[in-house]
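dude i think i finally got it to work??
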Amino acid sequence: MRGIRNRAVRKMMAKLKEMGAIDHLTGIIAGAEHEVLTAAKRLEDATDQDVIGEVPAVEMRRDSLEAMIDAMAGGSFDDLWLENVAPELLDTTDGVEGYLGADADEWEAQIARWAETYREGGAEGSDRALADHHVRNKWGVDLATFEDRVVEFDGGEAAERLFAANFRAACTVIHNAADELEGDADE
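look at this
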């Protein structure tokens, strides 16, 4: 049943793409996002904040949004995340795909295997401490961070964060500025 639904979604997405609807919609979203970010960037600069960074060009963001939609519709969002987001979060992505969204029991078994390997080499410590050592050496983050970013990965949540990240950054700047102004008004 799922395969039929996935094929139907891909067929519908192909038709929308062929009609230019996706390009049109992503262009509208990217344009609106650029306007909001540009205004928020001005406010950020005026209030001495550092939240937004560089405002992406409309065309670049449109392409990014379209790639995310294509990946989601094609069932390859995990690959897109591994190629484009994971390198920003980890020192390396080598071998990480096997742990992306891992089952809890499988993950605990992996931690135990790493710990056993280190113990065979003479190391001492709890399973989690030894696994933390392994993860830090291999991917450059602590175990808890790796679990949060990789093991507990949820494609839907990750997609939502990527689609909404720029709007959320703009909201943060606006709220920070409002807090500053409200604080000044209280004095």
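Residues 2-101+153-186 form one domain.
im so relieved honestly
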